[in-house]
Amino acid sequence: MTPKQKALQLVDSFTMIDEFTINGSKIYYHDSIKCALIAVNELLEATKRYDYTLGPNPSYNDYWLKVKYQIEHL
Q1: What is the pTM of this model?
Q2: DSSP state, 1?
């Protein structure tokens, strides 16, 4: 899956049609983008703290940085 496809998939996972409601609060598409960015940022932060026994995998972080870029440009 390309970074752009993954970005769209993540945003879509937080979106239902144009809006949806959680505890009486409406969540719109731009909020879904924010949620997807939070998810990617948490993932990137977690990989920084992870103690790699086999060494870090830069292509993994590069992929998620590209996904983040695509989300930011939706």
Answers
A1: 0.74
A2: -
